[in-house]
């Protein structure tokens, strides 16, 4: 997945596996980012890693449900986040640049889900068109 957002170019590749029950495991992630001039490369890497993790969380678990006209996920205790044992190794590669600085937090969030969906398609042949990921489709219990 490659994109331009907030003055930053980012390309992300994800490797994932899917078991027979439709459970997804992200094995590793590589992201290349050109965010212009970088003041603090460690901060950039942390922001991209955090953004990717948040994007993967949304893709895997981000369903918002409504019951009796009210959203059931009212705070973080009701919203499933990716756990540390599920978090993949994420390598961030910075492209040297002399352009004006771009954003670094948001591009990671939006790069994660499409790279994961592409990895799932490569692993299973199933092209998902809706998020969050429906494990019943991946397990063959429903049609995409």
Mean pLDDT: 94
Approximate strand percentage: 15-25%
Q: First CA to last CA: what distance?
A: 21 Å
Largest sheet: 4 strands, mixed
Strand order of the largest sheet: 1-2-3-6
Shape designation: globular
Poorly predicted runs of 5 or more residues:
none
Structural class: alpha+beta
Helix content: 25-40%
Number of helix segments?
3
User: What sequence of helices (H) and strands (E) makes up the elements?
Assistant: EEEHEEEHH
Number of strands: 6
Radius of gyration: 16 Å
What does this structure look like?
The chain has helices at residues 41-61, 105-124, 135-138, and strands spanning 2-5, 8-18, 24-34, 66-67, 70-71, 90-94. With 144 residues, it is an alpha+beta fold. The strands form two sheets. It has a four-stranded mixed beta sheet with strand order 1-2-3-6. Helix 1 crosses helix 2. The radius of gyration is 16 Å and the shape is globular.
Short note summarizing the structure:
This protein is of the alpha+beta class and 144 residues long.
Task: Name the features.
4-stranded mixed β-sheet, globular, 6 strands, 31% helix, alpha+beta, single chain, 144 residues, 24% strand
């Amino acid at each position: 997945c490659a994109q331009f957002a907030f003055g930053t170019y980012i390309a992300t590749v994800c490797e994932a596996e899917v078991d027979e029950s439709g459970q997804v495991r992200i094995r590793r992630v590589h992201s290349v980012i050109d965010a212009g001039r970088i003041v603090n490369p460690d901060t950039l890497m942390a922001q991209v890693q955090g953004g990717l993790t948040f994007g993967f969380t949304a893709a895997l678990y981000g369903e918002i449900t409504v019951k009796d006209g009210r959203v059931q996920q009212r705070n973080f205790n009701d919203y499933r986040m990716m756990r540390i044992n599920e978090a993949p190794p994420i390598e961030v590669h910075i492209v040297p640049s002399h352009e004006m600085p771009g954003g670094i937090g948001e591009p990671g969030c939006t790069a994660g889900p499409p790279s994961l969906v592409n990895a799932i398609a490569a692993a299973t042949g199933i092209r998902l068109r809706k998020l969050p990921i429906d494990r019943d489709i991946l397990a063959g219990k429903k049609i995409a």
